[in-house]
UniProtKB/TrEMBL annotation:
Keywords carried by this UniProt record: ATP-binding, Kinase, Membrane, Nucleotide-binding, Phosphoprotein, Transferase, Transmembrane, Transmembrane helix, Two-component regulatory system
Coiled-coil intervals, chain numbering: none
GO MF annotations in UniProt: ATP binding
Species the sequence originates in: Nonomuraea purpurea
Pfam families per record: HAMP (PF00672), HATPase_c (PF02518), HisKA (PF00512)
Protein name stated in the entry: histidine kinase
The keyword Iron is annotated on this UniProt entry: no
Subcellular location: Cell membrane
Transmembrane segments: 20-46, 67-91
Length: 381
């Protein structure tokens, strides 16, 4: 896990564009100019009065005023210089220092400490911001470690599911075929009950084969990453419909698709997604001929797809359960299946960075499933 450096800050507008140091410089220059002009004018006035040859006592008073004014001007000048030095070294420099440190952190160097010694207000502010930085970095590292751990254990689980389902296929095939051979070869010597037991055994083994194959498909999504490219989802839907053409014809179903966009993804998996959802819409049909509609609409950087049907629908309380692996709401003899289709669909969508859910508020009979996929060209957003 990594944190991207922050984007550059928004540039201030209007008078705020000028750095505070410039403001001080500007106002300081104006004040200094006015002060110098004042000094020159007053001294010139005094010189003019002295040039008029005033009485001796007035001249003495003028001399004292002249000296006092020079002292006052010198003190004021010294104060101005002192203020500028204090401003420069006690305020502007520490602000600059803190700014550089904050820029380093914002640029991605999250271990860069924020610290200035003076003035007291800035020192306090920098210590608060720094403790905030340390806490955020600690929390981020903990979350990052957890995410790594989760990724690792997820990978292990997927690997386990893959190996288990892959390696179980062979012994299971043996059980199924030898039980069938037993039935074929010794069927004539067996009574009805024995035949029935063998039938159950073959049926169980076949069902387990189906479950294991489904599990294998499920564990392949994400593990076998597959190509990702810009995919025309309309073409993926077309392929799914071709694969289902016999089922669609049998059910006398009408499946229509709106204008479907290009998305970033794996073509095979997106076809599988459409196929599973439409297969469900056909399977869980009501008394009427199935009518299925696939649509998409733009939602920020994503496309939101929907697949709605006029079938038996799903009670809202089962909206989460139906996405769990091997969870079904109906007995197998009424609606066949293993219960992996929707779990697989959700895994495919999540692997593509989207979400899949049952729309509990959809109008009309039947079920509406919605899912999001990143739009082509926007995946870096
Ligand atoms: N379009 C739908 N209309 C009504 N119920 C649905 C629909 N889609 C799914 N369901 C319900 O959700 C359950 C889970 O669906 P899912 O596709 O995972 O399994 P399945 O279709 O029963 O088996 P599989 O897909 O493995 O053949 C279904 O058993 C069904 O009860
Ligand atoms: Mg299904």
């Amino acid at each position: 896990m990594s944190i991207h450096p922050l984007p550059p800050p928004k540039a201030p507008t209007g008078l705020g564009r000028l750095p505070v140091a410039r403001w001080f410089l500007l106002i300081g220059a104006l004040a200094g100019g006015a002060f110098a002009a004042g000094v020159v004018v007053i001294l010139a006035l005094l010189a003019q009065i002295v040039a008029l040859n005033p009485r001796d006592d007035v001249a003495a008073q003028l001399g004292r005023l002249h000296a006092a004014l020079i002292v006052v001007f010198a003190v004021l000048f010294g104060c101005g210089i002192g203020l500028a030095v204090i401003l420069r070294y006690a305020v502007l420099k520490p602000i600059e220092q803190l700014g550089a440190q904050v820029r380093a952190v914002a640029g991605g160097d999250f271990d860069h400490a924020l610290h200035v010694d003076r003035p007291a207000e800035l020192a306090e502010l920098s210590s608060h911001v720094d403790s905030m930085r340390r806490r955020i970095v600690l929390a981020w590292r903990a979350a990052s470690d957890q995410a790594d751990e989760l990724r690792r254990s997820n990978g292990e689980l997927e690997q386990f599911a893959y190996v288990a389902s892959h390696d179980l296929q062979e012994p299971l095939r043996k059980v199924a075929s030898f039980t069938q051979m037993l039935e074929q070869r010794y069927g004539s010597q067996l009574d009805e009950r024995a035949k029935q037991y063998i039938h159950y055994a073959v049926d169980g083994a076949k069902r387990m084969q189906l479950l294991i194959n489904d599990l294998l498909d499920f564990s392949r999504v994400g593990r076998v990453t597959g190509d990702r490219s810009v995919v025309d989802s309309g073409a993926a839907l077309e392929t799914a419909l071709e694969n289902l053409s016999a089922t669609i014809a049998d059910a006398e179903a009408t499946v229509t698709g709106g204008e479907l966009p290009e998305v970033v993804g794996n073509r095979l998996q997106l076809t599988q997604l459409f196929q599973n959802l439409i297969e469900n819409a056909l399977k869980f049909r009501s008394d009427e001929a199935p009518v299925v509609r696939v649509e998409a609409r733009r939602d920020d950087g994503f496309w939101e797809f929907s697949c709605s049907d006029n079938g038996i629908g799903v009670e809202p309380k089962y909206a989460d359960r139906i996405f769990l692996i091997f969870q079904r709401l109906h007995p197998r003899d009424v609606y066949p299946g293993t219960g992996i289709g929707l779990a697989l669909c959700r895994k495919i969508v999540e692997y593509h960075g989207g979400q899949l859910w049952l729309d509990g508020d959809a109008e009309g009979p039947g079920a509406t499933f919605r899912w999001t996929l990143p739009a082509a060209g926007d995946d870096d957003d």
